[in-house]
Amino acid sequence: MAAHMDDESLVMLEASLRKTMLSTSGAELDAALAELGWADMLSDAPEVSIPLVFRLLGETGSHASILNDIVVIQTVGRELGQIPELPYAGNGWVVWDYSNDENSTLGGLPLRRVDEGDPVRLVDARRAVAWWLIGASRAMLALARRHALDRVQFGRPIAGFQAVRHRLAEALVAIEGAEATLELPGEDNPDLTALLAKAAAGKAALTTAKHCQQVLGGIGFTAEHELQHHVKRVLVLDGLLGSSRELTRRAGAGLRARGSTPRLAHL
What InterPro entries does the annotation carry (predicted)? Predict the structure, then answer.
């Protein structure tokens, strides 16, 4: 579906998806995405649909269980509609459980911890969560940037202060670097490339959350401010499918065992 779209059609699709995600979330968003052809998009053009849909989930702050679909189509013996166990930081496992939505303690996501899970293929799933983190990071940066332009101290916007500009710049560099990692081809080493992309996106999101919190100051700590929603979300998403710290260590251990560093990009 998306593979055959021109640029104008993709822009229209993005606008439609954004509008839908801004007005609904959870099980209702799952249903809305199904109507918009999510299954066909995932089947026909995952290289387009996964970055687009999951980035928008991050930017809008909504959520859906479509990560399950990506996991099951890459796992032998799994079919669409099944609910797979997903690895979580600290050797834990979680599943999407909408019945537990109101009592969720994981960043507003309906995730329920389970004792154990079966091995699943995580290449595209890690890329999906990484794009989700990128979208949330850009949302936080936009909030901090707008605050810096609007907040006036000593007769001028705080965006003109060097310390503020440095924090926003460091966040932007982290986001752009993580997105560049996500755009690596990865044909030769898909598992390693996806692992590093997820780690980079998680690190970028945590860096962005820290700097944006500092730029926003006291108002950024309040539960009423939109930033806190994104901060809590990225803390959970960083842990989902392996935290940035765990994945970095895993990648390093694998490279030491291998005794060499594979070429991930041909420059």
Answer: AcylCo_DH-like_C, AcylCo_DH/oxidase_C, Glutaryl-CoA_DH_mitochondrial
Residue range 22-35: mean pLDDT, rounded: 94
SS (H, E, C) 227-259: HHHHHHHHHHHHHECCCHHHHHHHHHHHHHHHC
Read off the tokens for 160: 């003109």
How far separated are the first and last CA of the chain, in Å rounded? 31
The CA-based angle 138-129-216, given to 5 degrees, is 30
The model's pLDDT over 204-258, given as tens digits with 9 standing for 90+, comes to: 999 999 999 999 988 878 878 899 999 999 999 999 999 999 999 998 988 888 7
Residue 35 has pLDDT above 70, yes or no: yes
Residue 109: beta bridge partners? 106
- pTM for this prediction: 0.92
Torsion sign across C-alpha atoms 66, 71, 77, 83: negative
In angstroms, rounded to a whole number, what is the distance separating the alpha carbons of residues 43 and 129? 18
Question: Which amino acid is residue 158, in one-letter code?
Answer: I
Of 265, 208, 241, 205, which Cα lies nearest the Cα of 111? 241
Q: What is the mean pLDDT of the chain?
A: 89
Q: What angle do CA 217, 222, 227 make, to 5 degrees?
A: 75
Domains in the chain (CATH in brackets) are 122-258 (1.20.140.10)
